[in-house]
């Protein structure tokens, strides 16, 4: 099963999601990330956070949803409504869900406040990914009518 974590820039939240998912996922599950308007560069603070957590980002880069190496089975948008952010709409024939997380790279404040925002985004995404991986995916992967509400519920889990 291929999971696409999608946002606009593919530099921070979708990167964190991809890296955490692949770090935790068992064989047969794989995440990729992309953006509708990729920044072309991964966020340095997101990379540093993942390194502190012992999560590899080797081979990851900011990429367009037009250049996906595989067709996703599930698309998870991770953008949020702050500052009028618009979430891209993936139009392919896949199961879609929304797990909105505020963009820590837009936080203005002290270094500590910015670091707290990154940690909070990480904790929220990790909690949701852990909930996803705890689902009985062998039962649900071929039953979108049951899987979709579970994915949507996961999008409400706080960090």
Automatic annotation (TrEMBL):
Residue intervals of the Phosphotyrosine protein phosphatase I domain: 1-135
UniProt protein name: Arsenate reductase ArsC
Listed Pfam families: LMWPc (PF01451)
Keyword RNA-binding: no
Source organism, top-level taxon: Bacteria
Organism: Telluria aromaticivorans
GO BP: response to arsenic-containing substance
Keywords: Arsenical resistance
């Amino acid at each position: 099963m291929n999971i696409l974590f999608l946002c606009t820039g593919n530099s921070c939240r979708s990167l964190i999601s991809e890296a955490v998912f692949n770090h935790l996922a068992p064989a047969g599950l794989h995440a990729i990330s992309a953006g509708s308007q990729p920044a072309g560069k991964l966020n340095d603070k997101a990379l540093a956070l993942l390194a502190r957590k012992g999560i590899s980002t080797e081979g990851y880069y900011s990429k367009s949803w037009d250049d996906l190496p595989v067709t996703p089975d599930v698309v998870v948008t991770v953008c949020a409504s702050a500052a009028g952010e618009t979430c891209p709409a993936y139009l392919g024939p896949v199961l879609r869900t929304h797990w909105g997380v505020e963009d820590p790279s837009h936080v203005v404040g002290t270094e500590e406040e910015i670091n707290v925002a990154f940690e909070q985004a990480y904790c929220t995404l990790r909690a949701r990914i852990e909930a996803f991986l705890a689902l009985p995916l062998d039962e649900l992967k071929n039953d979108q009518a049951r899987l979709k509400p579970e994915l949507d519920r996961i999008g409400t889990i706080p960090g």
